[in-house]
Amino acid sequence: MPNIKGPVAKIWPEALAMKRAGLAELRLHWGEAPSWLLVRMIALAKGIFQAIYDEYGSREILRRLSDPLFFQACSNALGFDWDSSGSTTTTCFALKAALNSIDAGIRVVGGKGRHAKGVPRELDALGPAMGLSGEEVERLKYASRMAAKVDNAAIQAGYALYHHSLFLSEEGDWAIVQQGMNPATRMARRYHWISDGLTSFVREPHRGIAAQALHDRVLDMTAKSSEEARRVSCDISKEGAKRVSRLLASIPSQAQAKIDGLFQGAPMPAPIEYRVPRRMDWRALEAAYEIQPRDYEELLAIRGIGPSAVRGLAIIAELIYGAAPSWRDPAKFSFAFGGKDGVPFPVDRRAMDEAIGFLRRAIEESKLGDGEKMGALRRLGAAATPAR
What we know:
The chain is an alpha+beta fold.
């Protein structure tokens, strides 16, 4: 049991005694958080992250927010239930309001829906105020666009992005939290990124991907094992739209039947249809011919190269040139820290405990009142129980 002193000590054992076992299924919930909850979430976030900044600095804030386990624990501490899909969108909204109003060296842009599309405009306005150069602002815009492009196109698991938040520091470092949803299954998937240590946007770039279910087949062009498929896809794109069209038309039916067989008997329905795309942006492929991209990242950065083009090139790479992409779901964490029965994967208890312990210390060291601390710690303790 954590070593807690003071008025909150009586609450923690009670919270841990609340039994929630099994896999957390984070379903999509429609509607908005009530204003009274948002006000309290923002106030709590201000106190918690000011304490983290005072003790560890802005880079630690970015590092923590890029950790799916910490983010989930933070959401619970601020006031969300462990199984609420709003834990991403509304928590990011509260963090944006909090971090943009305190001196913690971090500002936040983006959000849900139309706010996600406003990131470039927000960066243009915010960059100079933070002392960022025009080059640094453009680099941040590129990171925002590429993270969204990767999770919408390079990884195809059936989840369309609808939320995108970029956290940036005065030094130009950044973290991204974005979420996609599958309306058919009413399930969500959250993607976490950080600039620290990032060497490529297309080679296993995530800090973590959180999901409540793993799919048997997911097209993952960012996997290490997709290296050859990325290279071949890039080479094919440089031959022009007509060449790509002819190659797609030349795929024999028996080859397609072989791919179709991969989906038979899958424990979950395949989230995408791995077939020759009915529609592709041929103008984007013509642009690739003109640009002659040096690598897959440069290809993916071309406007118009979306899911259909990525899938079409991957089909050619595999069925004609034998360069198979990865079909392994890249999700690494389940919401609310996973399931105690090891489904969809074992709980990383050490990482979970470390995230909860760090957040607990930040709450205790904050200047929040005793009542606010007690409530936050009670919710944090309850969040820990599903995996124990």
